[in-house]
Amino acid sequence: MKCIINRRAQFSASHRYWLPELSEAENLEQFGACTRYPGHGHNYVLYVSMVGELDEYGMVLNLSDVKQVIKREVTSQLDFSYLNHVWQEFQDTLPTTEQMARVIWQRLAPHLPLVRIQLFEHPELWADYYGNGMEAYLTISTHFSAAHRLARPDLSYEENCEIYGKCARPNGHGHNYHLEVTIKGNIDPRTGMIADLVAFQKAVDDYVVEPFDHTFLNKDIPYFAEVVPTAENIAVHIRDLLQEPIRQIGARLHRVKLIESPNNSCEVYCAEDASVAAIAGLREPALVEV
Fold this sequence. Notes:
Layout: E1 2-15, H1 24-31, E2 40-53, H2 63-78, E3 81-82, H3 83-86, H4 89-92, H5 97-108, E4 114-122, E5 125-129, E6 135-148, H6 157-164, E7 173-186, H7 197-212, E8 215-216, H8 217-220, H9 231-248, E9 252-261, E10 264-269, H10 276-281, E11 286-289
Helix pairs in contact: 7-9
């Protein structure tokens, strides 16, 4: 039986976004505050996912060996470093989160049976890389607060209560929604970016967070006048709202995950990624968290 195991590691490092072939004004326009000299830093969290058959000892790999490989090839070199100078790959291409994930894969692939590298720059920004050339995934997380009522207008109150329970009460209830939006695209060989991060964040803010925040979804968002605002329907609507704005910044929307509460969440994929086979392809082996 094949299993995926995950090993967590961390390192602290600084970096700067600056291209010498651009003027100061051009760098500032493209990278904003990230151009400031001598740079800024993050506490990075790295997840290395590996796949293999269970051996006679009930393991895919000896985790002590995995730990040493990650330390030797990655964290001992990156910890407390200035990323722009530490590896040649970060001199040719800026050390963005997505580029770092790709390079870490390249450093570890000769030693470990990788299936994914996930790198968190901070809890609200992370990249995933699956070994597919220059293609990577970038996720931002954000939140909004809103109220809703779950009830179909063609059903009686009693019928709605039977279907939706307390959520059908006439005055509604609210949530602090946590939203994750994932885009995918090819890493630019010079900037290291899938898309302009500022433009990505602005698209999510302009099309979702600002219109949805502190609203009663049924009454304030026209779409939900006729559609019951379940978490599933909200996520689908957010996906539909964001596909074109994300396309305009040069990337493709991949996934929207909406966390309604610690107990309830849902995720939806764009049409090109939405088949069961495509989704299951990332999760086919049994998952073992270690």
